[in-house]
Amino acid sequence: MKAYVFPGQGSQHREMGYDLYKKYDFLKDFFDISNEILGFDISQLMFEGSDDELKQTKVTQPAIFIHSVAMIKVLGDSFKPDMVAGHSLGEFSALVGCKVLSFEDGLNLVSKRALAMQEACEKTDGTMAAVLGLENTIVEQTCRQIQGTVVPANYNCPGQIVISGDTKSVMDCCEKLKEKGARRAIILPVSGAFHSSLMESAKEKLTDAIKQIDFDEPICPIYQNVSGKPEIKADIIKSNLISQLTSSVKWTQSIENMIRDGAKEFLEIGPGNVLQGLVKKVNKESSTSKPLA
């Protein structure tokens, strides 16, 4: 069975999508529509923007989403997922892939999500840190022992968790985790505390936007971040997507469940190859590849 996985923020790179744009004429209209929906020239930033420009949340998120959907369009009839999953932002790409959302609705939501998250980051003093080499339970227990806000944000693979919260609490937690044997506990170069309660204001804005859009039933199960479990009901998918901004990304659990349910081949759709590496760390026997690479 084929599982298609879609990357999130951090996978962006310079000239992303330009090779596809040059090779496939029909994508010119696709990028023009993207520019029109967003109200600025996202294609120019994707093809020619600097690393600093591409790191802006309001640019990064729609750019990665557009790149992923462009790959789906190029694959055409050969894109036949048995199951899908997306890492954080990538869940929106996955929802287009399994036909829950149209590209246009997806891009509108991604744009509103990015702006809302950027505003939330500016209002709060938050950050994230990568923790390597500890069991999940130790990280979870340590987060609970710290005063302030700090929570597990991304369960990326066994022995790799990202924590998120207010800056002081995250730094205090890192010191405690090092004392408990963490191989590394390092602050990440991010603008805020994603997937924590500090994103509550962004969640409220995104909730209003999501409620205005009709979600269709998926053509295959989508393994969602908040549960790591397969979902096929549109109303549950919508509810989980609303919860995602302030909940942990259960990526390890998603991959484990996909393998349990028969996934033999994982194909990464979008920029970079981060997810292929994470899949291999969850299960080194899994086949991973990147179409159109």
How many DSSP H or I helices? 13
- Highest CATH level, the class of the largest domain: Alpha Beta
Percentage of β-strand residues: 15-25%
Largest sheet: 4 strands, parallel
> Helix and strand string, N-terminal first?
EHHHHHEHHEHEEHEHEEHHEHE
Using the 3D structure, state the CATH architecture of the largest domain: 3-Layer(aba) Sandwich
Give the spatial strand order of the biggest sheet. Answer: 2-1-9-10
Q: CATH superfamily membership of the largest domain, which one?
A: Malonyl-Coenzyme A Acyl Carrier Protein, domain 2
**Unreliable segments (pLDDT under 50, ≥5 consecutive)?**
none
Task: Write down the domain tally.
Answer: 2
Mean pLDDT metric: 95
Structural category: alpha/beta
Shape: globular
**CATH fold-level name of the largest domain:** Malonyl-Coenzyme A Acyl Carrier Protein, domain 2
Helix-residue proportion: 40-55%
Count of beta strands: 10
Rg over alpha carbons: 18 Å
What's the quick description here?
The protein is α/β, with parallel strands linked by helices and 293 residues long. The protein has helices at 18-23, 27-38, 42-48, 51-54, 57-75, 90-97, 103-123, 136-145, 167-179, 200-211, 234-243, 251-260, 274-282, and strands at 2-6, 83-86, 126-132, 150-157, 160-166, 184-187, 222-223, 230-231, 265-268, 287-289.
